[in-house]
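re: that chain from earlier
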Amino acid sequence: MGQKPILVLHGVLLNVLGRGILLTGSSGSGKSELALRLVRKGHQLVADDVIEISRDGQYLSGAAPYELRGLLHIRGIGVIDIRKMYGPAAFRISARIDNVLNMESLAALDFNCRADKVGISGRPSRSISLLLETVTRSIVRPETICELGSIYKPIHQLPGSEL
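^ sequence. v structure.
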């Protein structure tokens, strides 16, 4: 991602199952903690707190500024070097942004699937990292989940994507 950024956003960008997932939300909403859980499960951190967005052909890509690469800030703990803690495979320089998840919407999370009538609600006891993985898998196999609602948005709804 050598292009000049067209936009800088606050959030966390991850590579989950080969898809770029941008977590948005206010400070303290749990973005970095969710990222840590996902990295621990084998997914890759791309950027935390500051995401430089660039156009990559018809897609948007994101990366961390050079000084912040591989670093994850966890409230109450401090800054963690993901590469040193989990190895170099836990970090990725850049990723195409495929979907956006707004953390504030998790409180209202409710998937109503016609096929099996399964409801998943975003209560504190739920594993949000597991839910995110499940939703990401469903993007590849859309028949597995229905009515994602407004919590998991396609990239064309990202602010600035019309640039």
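DSSP finds three helices and nine strands in the chain.
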